[in-house]
Design goal:
Layout (H helix, E strand, L loop, with lengths): L5 E5 L4 H13 L2 E8 L6 H13 L4 H6 E8 L1 H6 L25 H16 L3 E3 L15 H15 L4 E3 L7 H23 L11 E2 L2 E2 L5 H18 L1
Parallel strand pairs: 1-2, 1-4, 2-3, 4-5
Antiparallel strand pairs: 6-7
Bound molecules: zinc ion (ZN).
């Protein structure tokens, strides 16, 4: 599967980007990671990613050989221009237009532009992100069309030849768990279960079969529903 090419993974510490990291480690000869700290209410996601990075390389020796530096970029400016419940102390709710108030307008456009600049400097051709249209919450910057268009814009603007890879774009959460099982077996599924974070409320002291979280917020609901479906299908 190793293509001989190099990649930069937008790795937040959540389930989706963790699965994408394993996908990239299986496929590319060198893989680096980038995180954006934008004053999230929950530093817990950024803490989870340190633990995940340390442990994922123990699953396969070739993954250990391929994983390179981790880049962290301070994007606290986003917290200053976005009044949403991820960056401010407010309740998660749906806005009048149907989007959750966790929506930070255009966030992925900024993330990919900065990631492309890092990748350009590090000579990494592929940019890998866990965006998904299947379960998505209506975020327009997670759409396949948005990211395909962004790839063209980045290549025009930087005179580069980068590829935006979104391996989860058309699969649901149960299939995301299955992808992890296919890539790294039960060991990777367990690591994602215990060392990635999804819960909007930042709950880490309640453990369930699908991982840690409050079990009630929309993010927990999506994660637990997907996990139950994955377990049910893999048993049959
Ligand atoms: Zn939750």
């Amino acid at each position: 599967m190793n293509s001989g090419e190099k990649a930069l993974v937008l790795f937040s510490g959540g389930q989706d980007s963790a699965t994408c990291l394993a996908w990239a480690l299986e496929r590319f000869s060198a893989v680096e990671t980038v995180a954006f700290d934008y004053g999230q209410r929950h530093k817990v996601e950024l803490e989870c990613r340190e633990e995940f990075l340390a442990k994922v390389v123990e699953i396969k020796p070739e993954w250990k050989a391929r994983l390179g530096p981790d880049h962290k970029l301070d994007l606290s400016v986003l917290g200053k221009i976005s009044e949403t419940s991820l960056t401010q102390e407010a309740e998660i709710a749906l806005r009048e237009d149907g989007l959750p108030n966790t929506f930070v307008p255009g966030r992925n456009l900024l993330f990919f532009t900065l990631a492309a600049a890092v990748a350009y400097r590090r000579q990494l051709r592929h940019l890998v992100g866990g965006m998904c249209e299947t379960d998505f919450s209506g975020y327009p910057d997670c759409r396949d069309d948005t990211l395909k268009s962004l790839q063209v814009t980045l290549n025009l603007g930087m005179g580069s030849n980068c590829v935006v890879d979104t391996p989860l774009m058309w699969i649901d959460k149960a299939s995301t768990w299955q992808m992890a099982a296919d890539l790294g077996g039960g060991q990777l599924v367990d690591l994602i279960r215990t060392s990635t974070h999804t819960c909007y409320l930042g709950v880490r002291d309640q453990e369930h079969d699908w991982g840690f979280g409050c079990g009630h917020c929309p993010a927990c609901d999506l994660r637990l529903t997907g996990y139950r479906k994955f377990v049910a299908v893999s048993r049959t």
